[in-house]
Design brief:
heterodimer; A: 296 residues; mainly alpha; two-stranded antiparallel sheet; 76% helix; globular
Chain lengths: 296, 249
Amino acid sequence: MIALVAAPFGLKPYGIYLLSLWVVMTIAAIGLNLTLGYAGQISLAQGAFVGIGAYAAALLTTSGWPLWMAFLLAIALSLAIGWLLGYPALRVQHHYLAFVTLSFATLVFLMLRNEEWLTKGVYGISGIPRPTLFGWAAKAPIAFYFFCLGILTLVSLATWWLVRSPWGRAFTALRENPIRADSLGVDTRRYTLMAFAIGSALGGISGVLYAPLVQFIEPTAFNLNLSLNLLLMVMVGGSGYFLGPFLGAAVSVLLPEWARFGSDALYLIMYAIAVMVLMAFCPSGLLGLAHRVLKR
Amino acid sequence: MLPAFFVLAAMKFGGLSFTWALLVGLLVALLVLGLLFKQLVVDPILRHGVLPLVISTLGLALLMKEGVKEFYSAEAQGFPSPWGGTNLTVFGAVISAQSLVIIAVAIAAVGLLQWFLAGTRTGRQMQATAQNPQLARVLGIPVDRMILYTFLVNAALVALASFLVSPIYLAKFTNGELLGLAAFVAAIVGGFNQVRGAIVGGLLLGVADNFVAAYWSAQYRAAIPLFLLIAVILWRPQGLLGRAEERTV
């Protein structure tokens, strides 16, 4: 924790940008971890919810509204859409949520691109201002990094509380054995929907932070690739582990940048091979590997 | 995407003519996308579950794309086609010979596959393996070899699709993503456990996609497969021609 606070001092602006990006992606990954790791549902739409949050923030703040309103709007929208999306899909069979979220993610991307009257389409929205918190302007890279870090801390505490609560235990029951959970009286459908909706809301929060971070957003950043990347982050870090998203986001955001200095062109190839080898030997991710090593 | 680049590499580095390069490309595709894919990627990971396999294939896709981009070229390459740009006029409508050949080859391939699965002994053994692997093993069917055959057939069909499509879309390392997604959706819409379902799904998807693009909205054409997918999942989850599969509790 102290390392996180001390980290940005002494880094160039690009390094601070990377750290802030890591924080933002971790928030989205925590949401996906809730849906996937704790409730056992595969969601391929997390990137779309990040996009919804980002565009909500961009549209509101460029019109002069404060950032906290964007937070509220993003959370409300993501919760509602997550609930509506999951409702018909879960009626049918367990893994069809994956297909429906796949379609939804592509649909959101298409709408962001085509509805130019709202989103300015491929031209994107630029000049997104950074927030001012009780008179403290979070405009400089380091200041904004601390703002993001603060939000991450709040989100982590909230998720920690959720996972330790009876709701969290219901989620775990859903993941381990949904049929047995059903027979014990746990309303599987409602809890799955809740996990998915809360996970999506966290994606929206992440998007609201993403927009002022990069200060220019356009639809391609929020297509299926982002959702797949977030899924990769959760799995590589260790799905179901609390610190999994932190590690997974670090691997996905920071590792390619470090490796880039070593071997200019092959870093993505090595990253891809590393991911495949990891999945072959330890599918419960890096934290699962650590868990196994420590248990011995 | 990859088989087309195997052919191009055979022509460029091996100096082979187009027909020989096609053959070499097909064989290499069978080897790499069939045998190696199964032995190195699917077998070690599948026993851990489906989701790690999904992530691995994400990594593999990245690897293939970056590999082609690095070791061949990042630019789109022309892919030769034996029938060129000839057009036929049928009842006043102009149809390119390319399209007719693609349809003919696709129908022939599916017909051949259907005959293989239903008519030959190996095909029936493959079906038995799919329906009940344990009982198949009891009956003496080499289950692992049947699974390998499935991957080989897949590799061959993928190579065929690549050779047919690359002359139109040019060979580029980003090819195949949209097509792969459409193929996936077509398989689900048609019904996962029937070959006929794949034809129906593919045809329905292709026709709907193009009609929507031409007569309604070109921007939302990519949404048609998705709407079809959601409609099928809600109202007929086993696909249009599939059989409903029960789960044991």
